[in-house]
Specification:
mainly beta; two-stranded antiparallel sheet; two-stranded antiparallel ribbon; 35% strand
Length: 57
Amino acid sequence: CYVEGDEVKVVVVKIQDGRIADWKGQVRDWALPETYETPTINGTMTQTRRPRRLPVS
């Protein structure tokens, strides 16, 4: 919701894995793959490695 005159703050968080729980109590863990395929301009696919995690200080 945007209110004119209020300051705007944006928070960007890199997420690589997580856990989802629903109201019934079912829990599912998930993680992004280390490598994934990305299309190139000419239509071929190339494998790309996900960036490594940086230590949080």
